[in-house]
Design brief:
The chain is an alpha/beta fold and 320 residues long. It is built from 11 helices and 14 strands. The N and C termini lie far apart (43 Å). The structure holds adenosine-5-diphosphoribose. Adenosine-5-diphosphoribose binds next to α1 and α4. It holds the Pfam family Ldh_1_N. It catalyses: (S)-malate + NAD(+) = oxaloacetate + NADH + H(+). GO terms for molecular function: L-lactate dehydrogenase (NAD+) activity; L-malate dehydrogenase (NAD+) activity.
C-alpha cells in the first residue's frame, strides 16, 4: 500500500513540530510548504536526518510551490502569523484572513479530497474562511482547538488533584478564545465527576473556577512567557491526534471546531463541539445536554465567533 501523504502548510514552529511528530509516528510522507524560501527545505533536510536515528523511512520535503501538495490525504494548516505578548488571537484576523484565501485556493487546486485541519488563529473564523475559500465539503475541513484546550484543562486538573493525566477526561466547548467553555459537568477523573473528586480532595469551587480561568487564558500564559511567539508543542500534538483519527478511521470523539448545522442552537457556524472523527472526516456532531449556565456561556462564545465572521465579511466581500 502506498504511503499516505501529509501536507503541512506553514513551516514555522507548529509546522516543524507537526512534521517531526508525523515522521516519528509513521503517518506517511511529509511535504512542508511555506512562502519563505529555504525554511521548509531546511527543516525538511534537518528532519530527514532524524530518519537514520529514529528508523523512519518517510520522505520529508520542503517546497514553496503548491503543486507539491498535490494528492495529499491530510493537510494541516498553520500558515500565517502567531501572537506576540499583548495581542489577542483576534488581532491576527486581518493578516491571516488573506493567508487563508491563498491556502484555500492552493488546497482546492491540488488536493480537494484531503482532510484539512486548520490551526491558524483566530481559529473559529479562520477555519470557516478556509472552508469558504477552498470550497471543500464542511465535513472535510475542521479546526484544532478543543483537543488542545481540553489538554490544557486536563493538565491543570491532574496537577490540582495530584493524579495521572491519563485518568483525566476534560471537556471544553465553544470558540478557541477567552470565551471558551470548559465543561466541568462532563469532566471526570477516571469516571468520577470532577465536582465529586473536588469534595474528596477538599478543593473549593473557587479553586475550580481558577482552573477554568487558567484554561481559558492558557494560550496567553504561554505567549507571555515565550515573548516571541505562541505555543507549538501541544497544538501540534493535538492536531496529530485528529489526523490519526481520520487516517485510521478511529471514530474518536474529539472536541473540534466543525461546522454546526442546527445542533446546540447553532446554524452554519464553526464552533468547538464534540464530534466523531473517522474516515469520513467530521462524521457526526454529538450534542450533549448542558446546564443553563453552560448553555449561556456557550451562547456568549458563539456570539464572539459570529462577531469574528462579521469582521471577516467586512474585510473580504467574497465571504459576505
Ligand atoms: N502561506 C504559507 N505559509 C505562510 C504564509 C502563507 N501565505 N504566510 C505566512 N506563512 C508561514 C510563515 O512564513 C511561518 O513560517 O507560516 C508560518 C507560521 O509559523 P510561526 O510564525 O512559527 O507560527 P506558529 O507558532 O507555527 O503558529 C501558526 O497557528 O496557533 C496558531 O496563532 C498561531 O496563527 C498562528 C499559527
Amino acid at each position: 500500500m502506498a504511503r499516505k501523504k501529509i501536507a503541512l502548510v506553514g513551516a514555522g514552529n507548529i509546522g516543524g513540530t507537526l512534521a517531526h511528530l508525523a515522521a516519528l509516528k509513521g503517518l506517511g510522507d511529509i511535504v512542508l510548504f511555506d512562502v519563505v524560501e529555504g525554511v521548509p527545505q531546511g527543516k525538511a533536510l534537518d528532519l530527514s536526518q532524524c530518519g537514520p536515528v529514529e528508523g523512519f523511512d518517510a520522505s520529508i520535503t520542503g517546497t514553496n510551490d503548491y503543486a507539491d501538495i498535490a494528492g495529499a490525504d491530510v493537510v494541516i494548516v498553520t500558515a500565517g502569523v502567531a501572537r506576540k505578548p499583548g495581542m489577542s488571537r483576534d488581532d491576527l484576523l486581518g493578516i491571516n484572513l488573506k493567508v487563508m484565501k491563498a491556502v484555500g485556493e492552493g488546497i482546492a487546486a491540488n488536493c480537494p479530497d484531503a482532510f484539512v485541519i486548520c490551526i491558524t488563529n483566530p481559529l473559529d473564523a479562520m477555519v470557516w474562511a478556509l472552508r469558504e475559500f477552498s470550497g471543500l465539503p464542511a465535513n472535510k475541513v475542521v479546526g484544532m482547538a478543543g483537543v488542545l484546550d481540553s489538554a490544557r484543562f486536563a493538565t491543570f486538573l491532574a496537577w490540582e488533584f495530584g493524579v495521572s493525566v491519563k485518568d483525566v477526561n476534560a471537556f471544553v466547548l465553544g470558540g478557541h478564545g477567552d470565551t471558551m467553555v470548559p465543561v466541568l459537568s462532563y469532566s471526570t477523573i477516571n469516571g468520577i465527576p470532577v465536582a465529586d473528586m473536588a469534595k474528596i480532595k477538599g478543593i473549593s469551587e473557587d479553586r475550580l473556577g481558577e482552573i477554568v480561568q487558567r484554561t481559558r487564558s492558557g494560550g496567553g500564559e504561554i505567549v507571555a512567557l515565550l515573548k516571541t511567539g505562541s505555543a507549538f508543542y501541544a497544538p501540534a500534538t493535538s492536531a496529530i491526534s485528529m489526523a490519526e483519527a481520520y487516517l485510521y478511521d478511529q471514530k474518536r470523539i474529539l472536541p473540534c471546531a466543525v461546522q454546526v448545522d442546527g445542533k446546540y442552537g447553532v446554524d452554519g457556524l464553526y464552533v468547538g463541539v464534540p464530534v466523531v472523527i473517522g474516515a469520513g472526516g467530521a462524521e457526526e456532531v454529538i450534542e450533549i445536554s448542558l446546564t443553563d449556565e453552560e448553555k449561556a456561556n456557550l451562547g456568549v462564545s458563539v456570539d464572539a465567533v459570529k462577531e469574528l465572521l462579521d469582521a471577516c465579511k467586512a474585510l473580504d466581500s467574497s465571504l459576505a
